[in-house]
């Protein structure tokens, strides 16, 4: 799915009254089937951008188009994966994965689809487990399975690996890349970790300023799977760091 953000401005209310501008005249395009990583310091509007793309909040001005149609509300074609696992504690893994589709009435072959996607993420032996019995990495895998069950065409991810230990982070990063390549998804992921952005993204969009705007974009021309220990990765990472440090010292 192609995403077009045209002249979008967004203001958020402040506790003390009034509004703070998050974006002003933001323009951005995400090509269908691409993996785009949005990078930036805390408070630059990264999560607000994902909320708008998910349809959870609307722009104050401007337009967001999905395949040429204006985005006005949440839709099953777009799934959002949050930073921290958000599972219902009284439901099993199987029940949590199926929950969204059941609520929407998408029950055709649901049991088989749930079994297949749980197997795909490597949790077949934990299908009957409850969230309290899962590690953090396993719980986030369940959230990923739930997000993918409805066959979305756009996957939005808000720092989905930041709360995981390094082992689980790398495993889940690899799994997401594999799923993206197999399903030809359009992925927009938010992170504050430059190394992660270079590891995963075809394109990096650097947001900054108040209100936020696109400060810089980078096309990452490295083959998958990427190796953080390779010379090419190290060189590209350092080039981007030096440019950002020179031009946008506030990020560091």
Short description:
With 252 residues, the chain is α/β, with parallel strands linked by helices. It is built from seven helices and ten strands. It has a domain of 174 residues: P-loop containing nucleotide triphosphate hydrolases (Rossmann fold), CATH 3.40.50.
Distance between the termini: 33 Å
Q: Quaternary status of these chains?
A: single chain
Q: In CATH's first tier, which class of the domain at 3-77 and 152-250 applies?
A: Alpha Beta
| Poorly predicted spans | none
Relative strand content? 25-35%
Question: For the largest beta sheet, what order do the strands appear in spatially?
Answer: 6-7-8-3-9-10
Pairing-aware structural class of the strands and helices?
Answer: alpha/beta
**Cα radius of gyration in angstroms:** 19 Å
What proportion of the residues is helical, as a percent range?
Answer: 25-40%
Mean pLDDT: 92
Task: Assign the CATH superfamily of the domain at 3-77 and 152-250.
Answer: P-loop containing nucleotide triphosphate hydrolases
| Envelope shape | globular
Index terms:
252 residues, alpha/beta, Rossmann fold, six-stranded mixed β-sheet, four-stranded antiparallel β-sheet, 7 helices, 35% helix, globular
How would you sum up this structure, described in words?
- The protein starts with a strand and ends in a 5-residue tail after the last helix.
- It has helices spanning 46-54, 93-104, 110-120, 136-149, 166-183, 194-200, 231-247, and strands at residues 3-13, 19-30, 35-39, 61-66, 69-70, 78-81, 154-158, 186-191, 203-208, 213-219.
- The strands form two sheets. A six-stranded mixed beta sheet has the order 6-7-8-3-9-10, with helices on both faces.
- The model has no long low-confidence stretch (mean pLDDT 92).
- The longest helix has 18 residues, at 166-183.
- The chain has a domain at 3-77 and 152-250: Rossmann fold (3-Layer(aba) Sandwich), CATH 3.40.50.
- The protein is of the alpha/beta class.
- It has seven helices and ten strands.
- Helix 3 crosses helix 4 and helix 6 packs across helix 7 (231-247).
């Amino acid at each position: 799915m192609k995403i077009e953000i045209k002249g979008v401005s967004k203001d958020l209310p402040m506790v003390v009254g009034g509004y703070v501008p998050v974006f002003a005249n933001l323009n951005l395009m995400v090509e269908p089937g691409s993996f785009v990583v949005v990078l930036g310091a805390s408070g630059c509007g990264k999560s607000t951008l994902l909320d708008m793309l998910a349809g959870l909040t609307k722009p104050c001005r401007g337009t967001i188009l999905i395949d040429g149609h204006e985005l006005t509300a949440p839709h099953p074609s777009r799934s959002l994966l949050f930073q921290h696992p958000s599972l219902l504690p009284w439901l099993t893994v199987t029940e949590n994965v199926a929950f969204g589709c059941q609520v929407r009435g998408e029950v055709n072959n649901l049991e088989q689809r749930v079994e297949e996607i749980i197997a795909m993420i490597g949790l077949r032996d934990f299908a009957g487990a409850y969230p309290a019995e899962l590690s953090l990495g396993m719980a986030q895998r369940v959230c990923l399975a739930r997000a993918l069950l409805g066959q979305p065409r756009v996957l939005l991810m808000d720092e989905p690996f930041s709360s995981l230990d390094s082992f689980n982070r790398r495993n889940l990063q690899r799994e997401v890349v594999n799923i993206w390549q197999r399903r030809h998804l359009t992925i927009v992921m938010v992170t504050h970790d430059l190394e992660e952005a270079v590891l995963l993204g075809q394109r990096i969009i650097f947001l900054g300023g108040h209100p936020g705007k696109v400060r810089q974009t980078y096309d990452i021309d490295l083959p998958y799977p990427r190796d953080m220990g390779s010379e090419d990765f190290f060189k590209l990472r350092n080039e981007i760091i030096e440019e950002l440090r020179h031009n946008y010292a506030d990020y560091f």
